[in-house]
């Protein structure tokens, strides 16, 4: 649930989304006297008063829904999910802006703001990461002070050899900041602990050669701590590289000139985030240009990017994305991978289609689902023939866009190539002429783009004739026919006739465009007979 500024204010899950959402807007019974109920309703009414938009993500099962809800709450920290937040799950480290900086765990308050002394923030780090678990170890390794204020005499940390006591000038500021710089390089990923280990080993050998055995022993103890941290860091790095992957699905609506994109992030086999984008299909706008812009502004680029179509210039695109990170990147077509990855992309496309369908009339969306069409049939053409003897034979094509007639793209034809009452040949002729790409033959016939679905008035024979004409013209558009007797739908993808319920809005849409084609063709036939 989002407020007027698009901020996420509440995240929830439900098996039945309609019932769950409607429950928020129901009024409490008038005889309610329970204080707990009134308090709950007051909180709910406060939430409802701020809701300006709703969004949802489909998952395959409850487990995925639980995990996704948890991850999204951690990421977006909605104000109405306050009781579900776990302040310990996301941790930030801070190096303070002081003469002798300290290393602290930075916390967020209820508004999501970091509090405490000013300093540079690193993170977030997930609970259980080595950086969080070893913050005390990091302080000891780099001899970072832990006192709030510099005391006038050394504290216990100095005698435990965990601090070099800058409070009594036992170490210069330059030497202290050298340790701070080494720590910053590790936290920022500019260098790893192994490099620091090598430097410490060299210093330990030099101390031993100088007979400074006490110093050598201190460095040895520090090295034991460092090696422990180094192993954990390597394991984390390997786990991230090979478990972090992103899935990018795209739907192009050529008629509307818009592309919809959904990006889904998965870590360690768990969905952690989902984002939706859209851009206009003009100029050089493409999936390739989107991916380049998206990852150029990302601070967390995965090694594997799975797509439902390979972007143009994929090799150059991959090399461009590599420049934004320090590891290899692969763009992979999901159809070439395992069933698990194909299922995940299928889940993305289902979510994306649900998002796209929100902008279409319900009957158009229903028609897509009933006929198993590859795209929403927002643009539908319908063909019909009307003949009275051989002299007055005409054809008609009507067009509906989002369930409404678009009369600018209506077309009528006087049959020229068929000299008998042959409905099949007439359908073949008018379909061929309607989508002819020859300007010289039909200069006005290319004004309107191809439809998403073609409907033919008739049975199997008329359907076969229309499909034959389309194939001859190299046109790949789904085509069906509707027989008047029982309003039966015939489709080349179905062996048996499709019987849509009479009350279905999708059937009424097909009937409307069929009846409009019949009316338009009959009116032209009558017009010719009056001449």
End-to-end C-alpha gap: 64 Å
Range of strand content: 15-25%
Mean pLDDT: 79
Q: Low-confidence parts, pLDDT < 50 over ≥5 residues? A: 30-39, 83-90, 126-133, 231-242, 438-446
Highest CATH level, the class of the largest domain: Alpha Beta
Label the structural class. Answer: alpha+beta
- Cα gyration radius (Å): 34 Å
What is the H level of CATH, i.e. the homologous superfamily of the largest domain? UvrC, RNAse H endonuclease domain
**CATH fold label of the largest domain:** Nucleotidyltransferase, domain 5
User: Helical proportion?
Assistant: 40-55%
- The helix count comes to 16
General form:
elongated
Number of domains: 4
The main β sheet shows up as: 7 strands, mixed
What does it look like?
- By secondary structure, this protein is an alpha+beta fold.
- The protein folds into four domains: 17-84, no CATH class; 90-241, no CATH class; 244-357, 2-Layer Sandwich (Nucleotidyltransferase, domain 5); 367-530, 2-Layer Sandwich (Nucleotidyltransferase, domain 5), CATH 3.30.420.
- It is 41% helix and 19% strand.
- The chain has 16 helices and 16 strands.
- The strands form three sheets. Strands 10, 11, 12, 13, 14, 15 and 16 form a seven-stranded mixed beta sheet that branches.
- A hairpin with a 4-residue loop joins strand 5 (244-253) and strand 6.
- The longest helix has 31 residues, at 213-243.
- The two termini are 64 Å apart.
């Amino acid at each position: 649930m989002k407020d007027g500024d698009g901020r996420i204010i509440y995240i929830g899950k439900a098996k039945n989304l309609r019932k769950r959402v409607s429950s928020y807007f129901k009024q409490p019974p008038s005889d309610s006297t329970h204080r707990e109920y009134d308090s709950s309703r007051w909180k709910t009414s406060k939430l409802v008063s701020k809701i300006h938009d709703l969004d949802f993500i489909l998952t395959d099962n409850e487990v995925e829904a639980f995990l996704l809800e948890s991850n999204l709450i951690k990421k977006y920290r909605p104000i109405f999910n306050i009781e579900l937040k776990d302040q310990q799950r996301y941790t930030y480290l801070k190096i303070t802006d002081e003469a002798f900086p300290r290393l602290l765990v930075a916390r967020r308050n209820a508004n999501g703001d970091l509090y405490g002394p000013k300093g540079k923030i690193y993170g977030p780090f997930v609970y259980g990461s080595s950086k969080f678990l070893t913050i005390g170890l990091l302080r000891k390794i780099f001899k970072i002070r832990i006192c709030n204020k510099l005391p006038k005499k050394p504290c216990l940390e100095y005698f435990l050899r965990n601090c070099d006591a800058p409070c009594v000038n036992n170490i210069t500021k330059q030497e202290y900041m050298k340790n701070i710089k080494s720590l910053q390089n590790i936290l920022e990923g500019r260098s790893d602990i192994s490099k620091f280990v090598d430097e410490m080993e060299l210093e330990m050998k030099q101390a031993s050669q100088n007979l400074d055995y006490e110093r050598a022993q201190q460095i040895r103890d520090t090295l034991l701590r460092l090696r422990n941290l180094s192993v954990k860091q390597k394991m984390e790095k390997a786990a991230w590289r090979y478990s972090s992957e992103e899935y990018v699905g795209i739907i192009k609506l050529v008629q509307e000139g818009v592309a919809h994109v959904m990006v889904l992030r998965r870590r360690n086999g768990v969905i952690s985030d989902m984002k939706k984008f859209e851009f206009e299909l003009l100029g050089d706008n493409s999936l390739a240009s989107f991916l380049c812009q998206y990852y150029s502004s990302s601070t967390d680029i995965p090694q594997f990017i799975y797509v439902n179509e390979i972007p143009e210039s994929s090799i150059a695109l991959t090399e461009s994305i590599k420049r934004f990170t320090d590891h290899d990147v692969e763009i992979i077509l999901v159809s070439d991978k395992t069933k698990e990855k194909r299922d995940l992309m299928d889940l993305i496309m289902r979510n994306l289609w649900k998002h796209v369908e929100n902008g279409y009339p319900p009957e158009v969306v229903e028609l897509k689902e009933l006929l198993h069409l590859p795209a929403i049939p927002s643009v539908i053409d319908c063909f019909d023939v009307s003949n009275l003897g051989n002299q007055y034979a005409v054809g008609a094509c009507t067009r509906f866009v989002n369930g409404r007639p678009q009369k600018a793209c209506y077309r009528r034809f006087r049959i020229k190539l068929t000299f008998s009452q042959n409905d099949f040949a007439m359908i073949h002729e008018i379909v061929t002429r309607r989508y002819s790409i020859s300007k010289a033959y039909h200069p006005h016939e290319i004004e309107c783009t191809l439809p998403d679905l073609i409907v033919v008035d008739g049975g199997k024979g008329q359907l076969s004739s229309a499909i034959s004409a389309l194939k001859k013209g190299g046109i790949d558009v789904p085509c069906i026919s509707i027989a008047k007797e029982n309003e039966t739908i015939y489709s080349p993808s179905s062996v048996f006739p499709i019987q849509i319920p009479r009350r279905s809005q999708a059937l009424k849409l097909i009937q409307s465009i069929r009846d409009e084609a019949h009316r338009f063709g009959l009116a032209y036939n009558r017009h010719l007979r009056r001449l």
